[in-house]
Amino acid sequence: MRTLNALSAEHRGRLLHSAREVSFEQGARLFEEGEIPAAFWIIRTGLVTLDIRIPGRRPRVIESLAHGELVGWSWMFPPSPCRTGAEAMTPVRALEFDAAEARRLCEADPWFGHAVSGWVGSVLAHRLQASRARLLDLYASPGVTAPR
């Protein structure tokens, strides 16, 4: 499961205890590719797109995220920079989590840390698979079947 519901009620409650409600106007940038993340979000309402920079072009949207989905995962692996940018495509309400505080909670309780790592890992696995499928569609030659 990719939503916060993948965590047990206890672990979800511990993480939610540190959240704060935030809002983003349409067009607001949550973060830029290459930034060191200070926060991450769970979308409550609205739509956020993830994009990548392409030299000489506008950023390319690679994924759209909606209710319940995690925005930002690089915080889990400091000092890893964000691999994408993120923009509010509609007005967005979200729960915001301080990255440093979340890491402290994970380090203080290995079971909690393991659960959160597993959740973030499942989000990453899903996004990698989705990116792979988009790349296959983008670069596939019409009428050619990929070898097995």
UniProtKB/TrEMBL annotation:
Look up the domain of life of the source. Answer: Bacteria
**Domain Cyclic nucleotide-binding, residue spans:** 3-105
**CDD domains to which the protein is assigned, alphabetical:** CAP_ED (cd00038)
Q: Give a Pfam family name.
A: cNMP_binding
Family annotation (InterPro entries): cNMP-bd_dom, cNMP-bd_dom_sf, RmlC-like_jellyroll
What name does this protein carry? Regulator protein
Per the UniProt record, the source organism is: Streptomyces clavuligerus
Upper classification of the organism: Bacteria, Bacillati, Actinomycetota, Actinomycetes, Kitasatosporales
